[in-house]
Amino acid sequence: MRPSVSVILPTYNESKNLPIAADRITRSLSDYRHEIIVVDDDSPDHTWEVAEHLQEKIPQLKVIRRLTGKGLSSAVLTGMGAAEGEVFVVMDSDLQHDEKILPEMIRSFYERDVDLCLGTRYAKGGSTGKWSLARIGISRFANFLAKGLLGLPVSDPMSGYFGIKRSVYSDTKNAINPRGFKILLEFLGRSKENLKIEEIPYTFQTRMYGETKLNNSVIKSFFLAILDIRFGKWISPTFLLYSLVGASGVLVNLVGFLIAELCKFPDVQTGISFLDPFSLSVLFGIELSILSNFFLNNYFTFYERRYSGKNLTFGFLVFHSVSMVGILVQMSAFHFIYYSIFKQWNGVSELTLKFGADILSILTAMVSNYFLNSNLTWSQKPELKT
Ligand code: GDD
Ligand code: MN
């Protein structure tokens, strides 16, 4: 007989946690016909082998050992593709997700006919447990963005612990981006219908064995996912990240200028008539913003292709040159737009026209800089440095 519930357990280096997790889940779901699908990405610690041994004790456990492909979301999708139940539950295999709420989660489907049910750390009765301040901060910010930008009606859209009806999975699966960690967000953000959703609070447990796979790349791909779900129809999400960094650069530029002025940086003579007297404070602001833009783009926008160690200086020099080209592009674009096009308009004040031309020239330089940076500065093939 087909199981009614399929628990999908993605694993990567969880050989110590998996036997305990599988045992707890089996007990918790003893009243339901269920299967447990372990999807392992050929873990170096042989989690898949541990899983295969578990099958003697837990016959309803299946093992998928993926030799090609990696990543949490895609592992979950692989598991769902093989699942036979009517309800799929996705859960971490590292004991951080409390299995005691499983029966309640299942009841929400069979008794209250929900489409999706998630374990939440952010509703009354739930908690993130012991987390570092940085992780609390990132998680809260991510939550805020997900809810603000996507208008999701849930308290914990980043939860890795959720149940979903097979039919919702089938309707949505082709729209899902398999890269990254944020599979629930994908289902919530891309499902076409209004889903009936329920949330069940639980306390996120501290890891006992092994370590988290959550890193910068995961965090970045999460931001990309939000931008892609919200704006992907119109504009490349990487370009949006790049623009965010650019916007922060404007602030850094201003702050740098103010600091330099307060430190009484002098004006100097360069001998080039149209530059003199030359303000070192302006130069300082520009350089500081180029520096911060480089680092933010390197560790965020283009994280997978980032420069590190000895290569950092080289990368910075290329980025710096591209920024210089950007200045030239902006100056010439301004010149062209203002003198060849705008100036002929009568009845509009000079300041308005110049301001409009400046905005357009900034946008032109942004696009050309983005083109140069993504094809030149960060052009290397992404290496798998996760
Ligand atoms: N097959 C496979 N492939 N499994 C993976 C991979 C992968 O590339 N990366 C991680 N996993 C498994 C882990 O073995 C674990 O069972 C589960 O996915 C979650 O990974 P963790 O590394 O433990 O993530 P976390 O605890 O830091 O993150 C949790 O909280 C996030 C939000 O705060 C997870 O629940 C995430 O799903 C959630 O988004
Ligand atoms: Mn975990």
From TrEMBL:
It is a multi-pass membrane protein. This is Glycosyltransferase family 2 protein. It comes from Leptospira neocaledonica. One of its GO terms (cellular component) is membrane. Keywords: Glycosyltransferase, Membrane, Transferase, Transmembrane, Transmembrane helix. It holds the Pfam family GtrA_DPMS_TM. The keyword Transferase applies. It is found in: Membrane. Residues 242-378 form the GtrA/DPMS transmembrane domain. GO terms for biological process: dolichol-linked oligosaccharide biosynthetic process; GPI anchor biosynthetic process; polysaccharide biosynthetic process; protein O-linked glycosylation via mannose. PANTHER family: DOLICHOL-PHOSPHATE MANNOSYLTRANSFERASE SUBUNIT 1. Belongs to the glycosyltransferase 2 family. Residues 6-170 form the Glycosyltransferase 2-like domain. The keyword Zinc-finger does not apply.
